[in-house]
Amino acid sequence: MYRFKLEALLNHRRYQEEICQKELAKAQRVLSDEREKLERKKIVKQESLEKLQTKKKENPTVSDIMLHMNYLTQLSKDIEDQALRVQNSTKLVDQKRHELISIMKKRKTLKKIKYKDWQTYQQKLMQDERKLMDEVASTRHVRKM
Questions:
Q1: Sequence-ordered strand ranges (E) for 17-112
Q2: Sign of torsion over alpha carbons 62, 66, 67, 68
């Protein structure tokens, strides 16, 4: 019966691949969430700019304009921070993707080795069977004589 010597390693590679796939999926969800937060902050900033423009037409006080300007400044800082989080999340996703590709390559290499080993095993079985058949045939031939 055929048994692959490196089956335990192959199973370990499969397990690593599953874990890495889960980590990649989690990192992609985080990236998606961070991008959504960034878009919402940009929308809030745009809406605040529009409110400021309409307020300017209504003869606001200086303190109202300063309050809006401070709020917009804070929103801009928040957007920059969020953009940095998106960038970091993107790097993490890329890193996880490269890890997964590396693990998949290692697993596929082992699968190829297993297939070649199996083929060698099959050829050896066929060769042993041929030898046995030749031996049986020659034994029969000797008995007939």
A1: none
A2: positive
Residue 40 lies in a domain: yes
Q: Confirm whether 145 is domain-assigned.
A: no
The total number of residues written for the chain in this structure? 145
Predicted TM-score (pTM) of this structure: 0.77
Spatial separation of the C-alpha atoms in residues 108 and 114, rounded to whole Å: 10
Domain span at residue 75?
Answer: 7-109
3-class state of residue 145 by DSSP: coil
Residue pLDDT, tens place only, 3-29: 999 999 999 999 999 999 999 999 999
| All residues at 6 or more sequence positions from 111 whose CB lies less than 8 Å from its CB, including other chains | 10
